[in-house]
Amino acid sequence: MNKVLIIGAGGVSNVVVHKCAALPEVFGQIILASRTKSKCDIIAKSVNEKFGVEILTEQLDADQTANTVALIKKHSPKLVINVALPYQDLVIMDACLETGVDYLDTANYEPKDEAKFEYKWQWAYQDKFKEAGLMALLGSGFDPGVTNMFCAYAQKHLFDEIHTIDIVDCNGGDHGKAFATNFNPEINIREITARGRYWEDGEWKSTDPLAVKQDFDFPGVGERKMYLMYHEEMESLCQNIKGLKRIRFWMTFGEEYLTHLRVIQNLGLNRIDEVDYKGQKIVPLEFLKRLLPDPGSLAANYTGKTSIGCVIEGLKDGKKVRKFIYNICDHQETYKEVGSQAVSYTTGVPAMIGAKMILEGHWKKEGVYNMEQLDPDLFMDDLNKYGLPWHVEEWSSSVE
Ligand code: NDP
Questions:
Q1: Which residues are in the Saccharopine dehydrogenase-like C-terminal domain (predicted)?
Q2: How far does residue 11's CA lie from ligand 1's centre (Å)?
Q3: What is d(CA 277, CA 101) in angstroms, rounded to the nearest whole number?
């Protein structure tokens, strides 16, 4: 029987736990651990009501390797699914190495005091995981995650050569709040306020934050303005997609959201360094997170859809081809199914499928892997089976 330890009990975790519990033949026993145990208990209760499955819950501060090692030893899982925050990635990877357990996450490691979005720290674990005969699967969410798989699938089946990739990400939903982020506010605001970057002809080029924009007609949503920004999956894709000349990432934002963001920046509330307040050290962005709605709480009133995919250009049989591979996901449907909004759902489902691929042996390898380094076929089949159906279309207009 496969036992898994899931760390973190936020919006994404709620989806992962529900989806794993619905497949007892793959995930025989689930232990859910997080900093605040009561949040694990709420998820466990919902899973029990829906599927009659018992989830064991534990308190864990995964900033401490010793605690994490002790918890892994107590339960001896086959795999640890890390859906806590990117700050915990390295501690959890260390704990997996010490206890001989495979590892999976959905976001790259971030140092608390610097916004980097780089894989270098986790890639440095390559030899250690290889030598231990263990696997670390990085970025098994939607973007990174499914977008990497779309590219791997295109490389395997749709193109002889891929020249350009534009990843386009639209949340066309409405949560009815003046300002809220769809996943962890600290990570989200760090990402969006960073300088834009894209990769072209072998080098990184940068732009001012959200300075480059254009309209795009998103299937299921309609025309929206999308902004060029940096996103972590580009770092591995530019190395693993052969013949690639350019890769960019675009995300949509509404005017209201951007106005709030501008004010937050102007006031310095997005700072991630410590400031002194009445003799106490506080990090403004951590404080802001306290004030903003919990992304999970948006789910009940969320309407509309997400529409995310990859516009890919290249050659097939000597001819120029442009394809769009994408998924559309409906906030209300995902709420009905697992009590989460679509941004958590589109991240949690691929985390479950990535874990399933490892546990069933299809992807069981030694070392540290990004998603596109693995065979996409079974994963893509499972996206269709487990709630994230995808489509491929000839795409008439290029992304300027
Ligand atoms: P949330 O903030 O909702 O949840 C994070 C959870 O981690 C909380 O339960 C939190 O506990 C727990 N946690 C934080 N620190 C620790 C710690 N030291 N020890 C144990 N548990 C801890 O985040 P999300 O669910 O929105 O996101 C989860 C992950 O998914 C993030 O890494 C995010 O970047 C990633 N993500 C990836 C996407 C993708 O497409 N690849 C898209 C969206 C998110 P507490 O409740 O006590 O704060």
A1: 141-388
A2: 7
A3: 42
